[in-house]
Amino acid sequence: MSEYKNLPVTVEKPIPVTYDLGNLSVFDTNVIDRNDVDSSNAKREEVIKSVTRDNVQLLINQLLSLPIKKTTEHTGGNSGQGATVALLQLPEPSSELPREKPLPKPKALTKWQKFAAKKGIKPKERAGKMVFDEATGKWAPKWGYNGINKKLDDQWLVEVDDDTKGTENELIDPRSLNRAERKRLVKKNERQQKKNLKNAMGQ
């Protein structure tokens, strides 16, 4: 590209080009003679390079008109020298670009979702993950870290559930039963997830 070194930095075009500096793009609507870019034309590559060079020069001119911020970065070593780096703050892109990756495939329906769709059962509205704890006067998560479902674990006095009276669990610490029930539900959910995944893979 040494032949372009002495060309002027100012470029004039019959129809002004438009820019999308956020995407570092130039849109040139000027007409190009078909004969100039025909594959049989020996100067075809030179024409394309010339048009490209002019548009890149126009883009650089626009970029240099943006605010420039300079910063000094330490290069390391014992000399303590630094390198000055010029930074440009690009505006927000104005053109929508196509996706880099294809759209994700829709997830396979679970057994329950298929049954609900067949029977016309509408899904219930999901409640939020937070619940108001009247004892503390604060909102707390229903489960997980500091979840309200673990509230029983920290109580020094626990009321015995009527459902456990006269059963083998009557003399077991209710806090232990609460933890065991949570573990049982977690394992149940894991088994159901594996089952759903297996059903989806079988399709």
TrEMBL record:
GO biological process: endonucleolytic cleavage in ITS1 to separate SSU-rRNA from 5.8S rRNA and LSU-rRNA from tricistronic rRNA transcript (SSU-rRNA, 5.8S rRNA, LSU-rRNA); ribosomal large subunit biogenesis; ribosomal large subunit export from nucleus
Basic and acidic residues biased stretches: 163-180
A matching Pfam family: RRS1
GO (cellular component) term, any one: nuclear periphery
Disordered: annotated segments: 163-203
Domain of life: Eukaryota
Subcellular location: Nucleus
UniProt keywords, alphabetically: Nucleus, Ribosome biogenesis
InterPro entries in the record: Ribosom_reg
Task performed by this protein: Involved in ribosomal large subunit assembly.
Protein family according to the UniProt entry: Belongs to the RRS1 family.
UniProt name for this protein: Ribosome biogenesis regulatory protein
Source species: Candida glabrata
